[in-house]
Amino acid sequence: MRLPGPAILASFFYAFSTLGALACARPNDAAQIVTEVMQWVNAERSARGLSSLRSSAQLASAAQAHACDMARRGYFDHEGKGGPSFSRRVKASGYRVGTAVENIASSTQHNAQVPQRLWRNSPGHWENVLDPRLRDMGVAVALSGNKLLFVYVGGAN
């Protein structure tokens, strides 16, 4: 019997691990925090003459899967700990990727102002918020102990 290669095993592991991704711990006001982050992104874009981003269930799923994976496995990085890359996570969500970006943030303060401040003050993250190529976005949060993890994924297909 021939065993599947590492890439197939990694893809299977990721697909299997994301099935429970939406079940990770989230604050009671998670929906409000997500909405406020999305409104902020669009307000910043609008103030600069850029198009507003549409909410994408697929990108939100990719963002939530990553937030939950980081929370469950105790890491904070764009690359999954032994898991797929950012682009593979987005593709696994079913989003047809042309362009995609990701911002992450972590804080013991559980509110939408945290990622806003952090991303505005980081040139690379700010560029992702204002990327003129983007058309869609997904935002997610997850609890990791006393920290709240924020994930923003922007994309265009």
TrEMBL record:
Residues covered by the SCP domain: 41-151
Which CDD domains does its entry note? CAP_bacterial (cd05379)
Reply yes or no: does the keyword Transcription apply. Answer: no
Pfam families noted in UniProt: CAP (PF00188)
Keyword Signal among UniProt keywords: yes
UniProt signal peptide: 1-23
| Keywords of the record | Signal
Tell me which PANTHER family the record gives. Answer: SCP DOMAIN-CONTAINING PROTEIN
Query: What protein is this chain from?
Result: CAP domain-containing protein
Q: What is the lineage of its organism?
A: Bacteria, Pseudomonadati, Pseudomonadota, Alphaproteobacteria, Rhodobacterales
